Amino acid sequence: MSGRTELAKSDSTQALTRSDRRPTLSPACDVYENADELLVVADLPGITKEALNVNLDKNELRISARRAPPTDGKYLGVEYGDDDFSRRFALPGGIDESKISAELKDGVLWLHLPKSEALKPRQIPVRAG
After folding, report:
1. Which of 9, 23, 65, 120 is the most buried (most CB within 10 A)?
2. In 10 A of CB 106, how many CB atoms?
């Protein structure tokens, strides 16, 4: 059973196993829009800042990360494995790339994508004739 650990099971329980296969998960995301920005909120449990990559290339936003379980100790049962997270979004043109900011807090990524001035709504004055 190379690369696999199994916890013994009784008739009423399921075995916990560890496999060398690395699944790719699509994290749950919410996207909000207001007058000033697009806000992407992504659920990335167990992800560290060092394991997270956020890229914007030609209006495509890509969020990717790798989560690895702790390596110390002996596994007795494993349901959390080595997981890759990946999500892509097509963004509208007009994002001010120089002002993009991101924060990872408590396993949640908050990605602020400010709109350029050209995309922001503006009031058009109306003259009476």
Report:
1. 65
2. 5
Token pair of 40, please?
């992407």
DSSP state of 98: G
DSSP 31-64: EEE-SSEEEEEEE-TT--GGGEEEEEETTEEEEE
Q: Between β-strands 83-90 and 52-57, what pairing exists: parallel, antiparallel or unpaired? A: unpaired
pLDDT tens digit sequence for 3-46: 444 444 445 555 544 445 667 788 899 999 998 999 999 999 88
And the tokens for 125? 């004055």
Q: 24-69+78-114 sits in which CATH class?
A: mainly beta
Q: Pull the structure tokens for residue 128.
A: 């009476």
Joined tokens for residue 64:
């990717």
- How far apart are alpha carbons 54 and 69 in whole angstroms? 22
